[in-house]
Amino acid sequence: MSSSDINMLVDMGFSVSKAEKALEITGNKGVVPAMEWLLAHSDDAEPSPEPPTAGSASIPASTLQTSTQEDSAEANDVVSTTEVVKSMKCDICGKLFKSNLEVEFHATKSGHDRFSESTEEKKPLTEDEKKEQLRILTEKLRQKNKEREEQEKKDAQEREKNRIRSGKEMAQARRKLEELEMKKLIEDRKREKEDERLARQRVREQIEADKAARRAKANAENPSMITSPPVAPTLSTPPHRKEYNDTKLQIRLTNGQTLTQSFGSKEKLSAVRVFVEINRTDAPGPFNLMTNFPKRIFTEDDYEAPLNALGLVPSAVLIVQKKMEGP
Question: With a threshold of 0.70, does the pTM exceed it?
Answer without folding.
Answer: no
